[in-house]
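Input/output pair, single chain:
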Amino acid sequence: MSSKRVLVLYYSQTGQTERVLEIVSDELRRAQHQVEMVRFNPVEDFRFPWSPFALMSLMVRTYVGAKLSVELEELPSHVRTGRYDLTVIGYQPWFLTPSVPVRSFLDGPAGELLRSRRVVSVITCRKLWKRAYRTFEQKVEARGATVVDSLVVEDPARQPMNMVTTVFHLLTGRTLDRGILKNVFPPLGIGDGGLRQARQFGEKLAARLGAGEI
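Output:
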C-alpha cells in the first residue's frame, strides 16, 4: 500500500463538519497517508449565533436565486501550488445549496486548483442534501475535476424536530436537550452514530486510496 497526499478543504461554523473531517483524516493518517486540513476563512466571517434578520435574509436570497459569495482569505501558497493525490471538501447545505464560503471557493479564482483532481464530497446536514450535492458536483466538474466518492452524515432526528433544534441553535448558540425540554426535543447534531459513520468511511477511503482504486 503506497502513501498518498490528501488535501482536506472545508468550512465549518459550529465545528461539526470539522470534527467529521478530523476523524476521516485520522483514519487516512493511520494508513500512512499524508493529510493537510485547511479551512476556508471568509475575510468577514458569518457571525454565530446568527441574527434572525441575517438568517432570514440568506434564506430569501437563496430561494430567489441570488448569486451569493464572500471574499475568502487566500489559501497558503503551498496549498495553491502543491500536488495532491486526492482532495476532500467538507461542507453543509445552506437552504438546499452548498454553504456560501464553499460556493465562493468553487466559483472564485482559488477553485482553479481543483483542475484535473479527484474530489471527495463530505456533507454534514440536518436533511435535504441532494440538491446541494448536485450543485456541488456540477461546480466541481465545471472546474475540470471529478467527484469520485461522497459521504453524507445526517442528523438522525426526525423532522420537524430537527428543524426546531437546528434553528434554535443557529439563533442562540444553545441546545434544547436539557431541563424539562430534554424529554421533548432530541439531541442536536449527528451524534455518536454519525462519528462512527465518518470513521468507517475514513477506513474504507484510506484502503481504496492506498490500493490505487480511487
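Residues 165 and 188 are 6 Å apart (CA to CA). The first strand starts at residue 5 and ends at 10.
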